[in-house]
Amino acid sequence: MNEISPASVRCAVRETPGEDWDAFASAFPQASLYHLSGWPEVARSVFGHRALFVEARDPAGTLVGVLPVIQQRSRLLGNFATSVAFFNYGGALASDPRVAAELMRAAAEVAEALGCRYLECRDTQPRPVDWPRRTDKITLQLELPATPEALSKRLGAKLRAQVKRADREGVICRTGSVELLDEFYAVFAENMRDLGTPVYPKRFFRAILERFAAYCQLVVIDCKGEPAAAAFLTFWRSQAEVPWASCRAQAKPLGMNMKLYWELLALAVGRGCTVFDFGRSTVDSGTYRFKRQWGAEPQPLYWYRWERPAGAHPPATSGHGEERGKAMQLATALWQRLPLRIANTLGPLISGALPW
Predict the structure, then answer these.
(1) pTM value?
(2) Could you tell me the CATH superfamily of domain 139-299?
């Protein structure tokens, strides 16, 4: 791409993406799967959120940068926007960092006009903006060898023994798409209740599987005829990612979670992937340690946040940060005690409004 002057670039915010959006994202080296225009559109169709497409164009009208944004509004948590909600990646795409910064500023301007308390841009690299930046979240990635045999050897005897523990139970691994959605969702919803977190509606996953069939796959581990563990895999270029994985509590002592991740890694190797993304974690958390044992290495995430200026009359929120933190802890503890049927009824009504 020829070098352009950021001063000559014009940013526009649209309700629908330009016809060249997906071609631009698909060709951009640093793009993630979630930069494709369909992801904000799924959030709009499933949850009713506002999808915004921030575009930068040069004087000739050529697209030189994009930034997808999802606005969420609810009585529970107010009005805020994310690039891009529900996933780890989705920051500005532009060859020139200054153009990326202009995209972010344009998104902040529309967020302010829409009354948002804040705009969060989830990026994988530093940006030349003076916004507060979170670096407590990281993603863990594993470089994959060429064959499952090489992968098994690299993982070591201890991990292999844990996987074999599950094999003694006569497990069956199934892979597929929408036809496995009920089994995946049953495990996922139960695990979310156990974590004290409202579950997404099943139609959210169905919409993704139907719209992005070429990029997604479900994996279900059956034990004694019942789904014990399950995961949702995405594929983009040479990388596999697991945004959602779950294991029933009673199946963990049998090694079903270890079996699940082994099958995910082997599947990624079989598809020719060179990197496996375990998803984001907080450093030194339980999930962080679980992923590290597979050899995954932490990669920094740069989450930038524009916040509405003080005195600009932001929407009211319930209490101060410490009070809200205590309220969330209480809500989590109460949610874990809900009967599964009630949690699965209430969860889909709430989850779309949360800042995932």
Answers:
(1) 0.91
(2) Gcn5-related N-acetyltransferase (GNAT) (3.40.630.30)
